[in-house]
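Deliverable D2.4 — example input (structure tokens):
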């Protein structure tokens, strides 16, 4: 054994103060270290020689003797299947005895047994036999140990504590664990992640597993409920102008019930009117685990009055089926009506049309939180086909007008979240939208600009057959779901040219950058940012407000 290794094993530094010096303690430490490396027949002598009135030198003479090898290891257990690490142990036989190596192997065995459902297993060393050759040139060790698996971690009962409003059945179906299952400590993080994704509770601690007096395995899950049903809004009245007969209401009403009656059902109602000619109404409902299957059904009613151009109404039903921990498939059916706005002097805006749409989607989601992730990936891609029928106005339909057309829509979203170090998060996102068809109107275009796509520009400032945008954010967490951020956004839009409609092909790249803050409120994650479009001065910036609320 190297001198430096022995000195390190002493666990002290030199010089040593006289009042702290203990020769017997030093000798014991050295002997212990030599024994752990197989030098069981070593001899050790030490002498302390004073050099002057204030200091002394320590002389230690070590005769190591032969280093023992591991001759055999007798491993006793109820079943050979409970000894997953025996191959590693057998490999050690015939090698120099090293206590640290053997303890490491024992640790690996206990880890494997924990994964097999024996978290309370232990290894007991029964005896250590030493043999030395007649000529004292070699030495060997025979080690006898016993594996005690103790009780298998079978879950006999699941206790849920703290769910005052949320049904226990909702929690049980989300954790996907039942009585009779084996408890694996490594799955604790997965269980808490499943519950945290609901956003019904404060961050959930790891479940506890223990045996009661009747030796029943108890899985205890403790939750603390948070507010999930919210009503927020502001309504104002704008009096009529001099040339107007009546005034109008303006404002926002947002009702969100994310855990309706403690059943896990969701319902939301949103009404928004910014001016006389623009209004939005949105109703959604979510029925989770239909027929006891991982199948969610979500109907939606939506109406939007777009300035003085058209009214968009549609009914949509989406079915989402979770095929694994992170994968889900969805199917959507929608019926939509576009109703143009006509004034006293007819002004053509868009055609009166009805649209039937069917689509499919695929999602891969590993985010630890659906609203404010710290890590994970969210990927979603969908494809839909729409049959659009032109119904009028009759006076604007020409003999050559196409009355029925098929439209294809492609959606692609990819988001990546990385925690660089504590409280520092990088969020990267890329989104693409494209519509294809022989007859595309303004009402069919995708929109770009504003808080959710391209900051630094007005909401839906740009429109096109194809739009794409990317977002890069650097976030500093203030709390679990509140953070400061700086960002850089890039966007692209393309409007295909159409000679018959005298539409010139238009495309452009746009950039925006800025900073802001997001913080958790009762209605969701409220985001406030100050953004500049590329080339603008600081005084030209825009303030964006947005609410992120996972339905």
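Example output (designed residues):
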């Amino acid at each position: 054994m190297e001198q430096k290794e022995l000195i390190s094993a002493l666990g002290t530094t030199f010089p040593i103060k006289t009042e702290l010096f203990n020769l017997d303690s030093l000798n014991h430490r050295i002997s212990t270290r030599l024994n752990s490396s197989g030098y069981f027949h070593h001899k050790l002598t030490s002498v302390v020689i004073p050099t002057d009135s204030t200091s002394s030198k320590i002389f230690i003479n070590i005769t190591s003797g032969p280093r023992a090898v591991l001759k055999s290891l007798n491993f006793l257990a109820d079943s050979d299947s409970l000894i997953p690490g025996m191959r590693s142990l057998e490999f050690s036989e015939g090698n120099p005895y090293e206590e640290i190596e053997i303890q490491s192997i024992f640790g690996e065995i206990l880890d494997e047994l924990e994964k097999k459902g024996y978290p309370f297993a232990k290894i007991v060393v029964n005896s250590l036999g030493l043999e030395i050759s007649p000529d004292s040139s070699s030495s060997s060790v025979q080690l006898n140990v016993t594996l005690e698996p103790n009780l298998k971690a079978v879950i006999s009962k699941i206790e849920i504590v703290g769910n005052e409003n949320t049904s226990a059945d909702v929690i049980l179906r989300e954790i996907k664990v039942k009585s009779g299952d084996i408890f694996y400590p490594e799955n604790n993080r997965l269980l808490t992640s499943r519950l945290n994704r609901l956003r019904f509770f404060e961050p959930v601690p790891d479940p506890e597993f223990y045996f009661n007096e009747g030796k029943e395995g108890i899985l205890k899950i403790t939750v603390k409920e948070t507010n999930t049903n919210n009503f927020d809004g502001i309504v104002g009245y704008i009096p009529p102008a001099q040339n107007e007969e009546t005034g109008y209401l303006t404002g926002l009403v947002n009702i969100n019930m994310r855990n309706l009656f403690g059943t896990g059902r969701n319902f939301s109602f949103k009404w928004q009117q910014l001016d006389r000619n623009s209004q939005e109404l949105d109703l959604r409902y979510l029925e989770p685990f239909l027929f006891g299957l991982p199948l969610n059904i979500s109907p939606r009613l939506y109406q939007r009055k777009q300035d003085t151009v058209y009214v968009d109404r549609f009914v949509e039903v989406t079915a989402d089926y979770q095929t694994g921990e992170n994968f889900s498939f969805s199917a959507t059916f929608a019926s939509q009506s576009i109703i143009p706005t006509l004034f006293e002097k007819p002004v053509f805006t868009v055609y009166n049309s009805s649209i039937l749409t069917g689509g499919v989607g695929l999602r891969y989601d590993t985010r630890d939180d659906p609203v404010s992730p710290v890590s994970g990936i969210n990927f979603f891609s969908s494809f839909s086909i729409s049959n659009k029928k032109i119904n009028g106005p009759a006076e604007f339909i020409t003999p050559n007008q196409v009355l029925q057309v098929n439209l294809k829509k492609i959606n692609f979203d990819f988001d990546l979240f990385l925690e660089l170090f504590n409280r520092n998060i990088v969020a990267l996102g890329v989104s693409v939208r494209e519509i294809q068809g022989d007859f595309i109107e303004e009402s069919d275009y995708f929109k770009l600009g504003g808080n959710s796509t391209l900051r630094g520009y007005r909401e839906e400032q740009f429109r096109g057959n194809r739009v794409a945008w990317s977002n890069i954010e650097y976030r500093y967490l203030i709390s679990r779901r509140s953070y400061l951020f700086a960002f850089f956004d890039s966007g692209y839009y393309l409007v295909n040219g159409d000679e018959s409609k005298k539409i010139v092909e238009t495309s452009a790249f746009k950039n925006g950058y800025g900073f802001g803050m997001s913080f958790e409120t009762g209605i969701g994650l409220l985001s406030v940012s100050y953004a500049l479009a590329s080339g603008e001065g600081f005084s030209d910036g825009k303030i964006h407000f947005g609410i992120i609320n996972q339905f």
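The chain has six helices and 26 strands.
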